[in-house]
Q: What sequence folds into this?
């Protein structure tokens, strides 16, 4: 029997107050995409000002900083984090490990509703007096809560409250994901048989559980500085000509706490992307992932290192040179496991039977953009190089390539890959390819030239660049072209949304396993999977998720739950069965 | 395939899986440890500023600590009694543990009154209120779980004593954690000084 206490009994429990991980995943994804569109529009509004300064009267300096702040926070936290963990994590973890659902379905439902509440509070800040905060996405005090910064009154309060609610949601979800993976794997699904997607999401979740408390701590303390008059972060300060009651607080303390969250946050976004792209490449190249165990250890090493590099975001704040040396070294060491992953992706492709499907195109695009973004990270990891470049467009180019474009390409790839399982229909291929090429070439055209603007010394965070003698006219022309391309890329996303909506009813029927994939989520008795996922009995797993093009096998893939075939060595990363027996 | 395996594979997840709850509790304790550790690091770093004035910690906090020690011991006793199968006595001991915990919270509120400083008076008083409030919230969360487990036991409708004992064990584990956190906070609030911080960090 598959029925249980949280089985849906009607419209409301099936689609609204649902405790089914698949419905919750879709709720998370729709909410994240909706708020992500707001972030996209905000970026275009910024580009309107940067490309055509002074042409749009409604974009004044105050609005520009509000757009910038909200764009950054929305994209990093409310889109990427929520979509990877709440969307992909919720949908894929139980299906990929052969579970019927998350272990705490009610908590899972609460997690989504808290997330939705956090988004609504964030959006509400657009409508309060003074508008949303314009403090920059890092919300540095003292400026974040002082007059002169847009949204210093209600905007910053709502931002902090929204973040605190988001952290509660992420913690509830995170406890669920980790516990489900550790406690609800089906028979035979050992940790080293799990798809790398699950490894990436779980490690990112553990990072979130460790790092989000730092944002909670800094958020609570800044909120108290704002509303209760404490001086955790606020030094003695004169504002608008008048001395304030604050004294003795340390703005640097906030920076440490913020980046103790902020840097792992990069990997909270990157690790699920690493996992998903590994699976996409393996399936669409019809080849087992190269160096599976190394990939797992690299995920763990990156996760571990990511919590001891935070102060490389603070080189320009000044620090003991020995600390600078330590943080530069740990930052550069992260390049080692990361490079291992890139080599392994390339070696998986090497002599593979590469199918240039839409998911594969996005995966290949990711390798390219991540490589570029990662290499420029090596520049910025060095203190002496970082200091002159830190306040320039070089940094904007770096982080957009490595944690903006790269993860979003994986998100698109993942959606094109798993949409057939979620809906039972394929997304339109022609629209998908057009979407990929416009997005891939477009984002390159937007962010690659920014490296040159940065090396030219063009400062970031500026609202306008008139009357700076060192900025040549060609930089302004380049900025205009970047803006035009940004509008085109944004418009192309409408094509993606249309494809998502149109294909639900009109897409080609997908069947249960259109990509002929070996992992467990493609082996459900129904597509889309029914409540409980597995019908009468959960599957028994006999091998890893990467049994592709196995010599001697009847087909070019062997599903994880297919019984072993004599003489077929389908799990090369594990000790041979005969060795185990002996 | 054995009959037991077949049954396990075909059964839906139970409404509350105790091993899952145990794992989740370990991870929740990790999250809470991270939270309190970061607050304490912020506390130590804030101490380094010249305007820091030490807070005279109210003596009544010793009474608080005593209540929580008693609560923690009582919860442990609950588990030991329940493991011997004396469930009635275990429920009564558990009730006593809950009462001690409530008394701890009341004593903390009393300490707030005794302190006689407002929230924003000094950085030390701000930290005092924030840290004790945050710990209090975690205690309240524990009391919510305690209520669920205790009611589950006393209503007598479930025939799953082994599960009940395991849930009591989880409660006891969380109570020990709450006590450990409180002792660290108490020590930091009462005895951590800027000089000591500098000596620990090697900057003094």
A:
């Amino acid at each position: 029997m598959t029925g249980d206490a949280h089985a849906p009994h009607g419209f409301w429990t099936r689609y609204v107050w649902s405790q089914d991980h698949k419905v919750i995943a879709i709720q998370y994804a729709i909410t994240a995409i909706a708020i992500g569109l707001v972030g996209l529009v905000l970026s275009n509004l910024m580009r309107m000002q940067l490309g055509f300064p002074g042409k749009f009267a409604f974009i004044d300096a105050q609005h520009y900083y509000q757009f910038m702040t909200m764009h950054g926070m929305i994209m990093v936290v409310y889109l990427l984090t929520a979509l990877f963990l709440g969307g992909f994590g919720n949908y894929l973890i139980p299906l990929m490990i052969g579970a019927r659902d998350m272990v705490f379905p009610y908590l899972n439902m609460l997690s989504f509703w808290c997330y939705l509440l956090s988004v609504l509070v964030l959006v509400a800040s657009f409508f309060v007096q003074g508008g949303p905060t314009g403090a920059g996405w890092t919300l540095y005090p003292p400026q974040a809560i002082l007059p002169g910064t847009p949204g210093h009154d209600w905007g910053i309060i709502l931002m902090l409250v929204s973040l605190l609610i988001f952290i509660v949601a992420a913690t509830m979800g995170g406890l669920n994901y980790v516990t489900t993976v550790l406690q609800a794997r089906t028979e035979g699904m050992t940790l080293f048989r799990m798809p790398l997607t699950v490894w990436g999401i779980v490690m990112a979740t553990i990072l979130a559980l460790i790092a989000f408390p730092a944002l909670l701590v800094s958020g609570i303390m800044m909120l108290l500085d704002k509303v209760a008059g404490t001086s955790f972060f606020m030094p003695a300060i004169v504002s608008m000509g008048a001395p304030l009651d604050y004294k003795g607080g340390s703005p640097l303390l906030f920076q440490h706490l913020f980046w103790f969250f902020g840097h792992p946050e990069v990997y909270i976004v990157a690790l699920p992307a690493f996992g998903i792209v590994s699976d996409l490449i393996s399936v669409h190249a019809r080849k087992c992932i190269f160096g599976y165990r190394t990939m797992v250890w690299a995920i763990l090493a990156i996760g571990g290192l990511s919590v001891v590099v935070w102060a490389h975001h603070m080189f320009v704040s000044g620090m003991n040179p020995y600390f600078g040396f330590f943080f530069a070294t740990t930052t550069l060491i992260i390049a080692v496991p990361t490079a291992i992953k890139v080599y392994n992706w390339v070696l998986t492709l090497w002599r593979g039977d590469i199918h240039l499907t839409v998911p594969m195109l996005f995966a290949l695009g990711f390798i390219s953009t991540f490589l570029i973004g990662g290499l420029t990270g090596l520049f910025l990891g060095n203190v002496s190089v970082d200091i002159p470049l830190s306040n320039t467009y070089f940094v904007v180019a770096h982080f957009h390539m490595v944690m903006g474009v790269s993860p979003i390409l994986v998100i698109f790839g993942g959606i094109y890959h798993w949409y057939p399982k979620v809906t039972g229909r394929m997304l339109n291929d022609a629209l998908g390819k057009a979407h990929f090429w416009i997005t891939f070439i477009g984002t390159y055209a937007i962010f690659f030239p920014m490296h040159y603007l940065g090396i030219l010394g063009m400062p970031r965070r500026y609202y306008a660049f008139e009357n700076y003698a060192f900025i040549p006219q060609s930089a302004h022309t380049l900025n205009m072209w970047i803006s035009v391309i940004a509008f085109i890329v944004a418009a192309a996303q409408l094509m993606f949304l249309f494809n998502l909506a149109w294909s639900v009813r009109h897409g080609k029927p997908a069947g249960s396993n259109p990509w002929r994939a070996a992992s467990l989520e493609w082996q459900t008795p129904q597509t889309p999977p029914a409540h409980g996922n597995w019908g009468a009995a959960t599957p028994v797993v006999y091998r890893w998720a990467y049994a592709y093009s196995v010599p001697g096998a009847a087909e070019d893939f062997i599903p994880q739950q297919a019984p072993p075939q004599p003489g077929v060595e389908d799990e090369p990363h594990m000790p041979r069965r005969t060795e185990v027996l002996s | 395939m054995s009959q037991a395996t077949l049954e396990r594979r075909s059964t839906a997840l139970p409404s509350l899986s105790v091993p899952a709850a145990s794992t989740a509790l370990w991870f929740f304790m990790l999250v809470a440890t991270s939270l309190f550790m970061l607050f304490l690091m912020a506390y130590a770093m804030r101490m380094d500023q010249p305007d820091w004035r030490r807070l005279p910690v109210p003596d009544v906090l010793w009474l608080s600590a005593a209540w929580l020690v008693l609560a923690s011991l009582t919860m442990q006793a609950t588990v030991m009694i329940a493991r011997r199968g004396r469930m009635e006595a275990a429920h009564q001991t558990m009730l006593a543990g809950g009462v001690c915990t409530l008394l701890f919270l009341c004593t903390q509120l009393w300490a707030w009154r005794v302190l006689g400083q407002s929230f924003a008076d000094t950085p030390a008083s701000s930290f005092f209120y924030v840290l004790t409030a945050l710990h209090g919230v975690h205690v309240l969360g524990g009391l919510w779980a305690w209520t669920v487990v205790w009611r589950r036991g006393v209503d007598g409708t479930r025939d799953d004593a082994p599960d009940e004992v395991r849930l009591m064990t989880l409660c006891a584990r969380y109570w020990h954690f709450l006590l450990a956190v409180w002792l660290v906070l108490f020590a930091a609030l009462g005895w951590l000084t800027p000089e000591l911080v500098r000596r620990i960090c090697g900057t003094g």
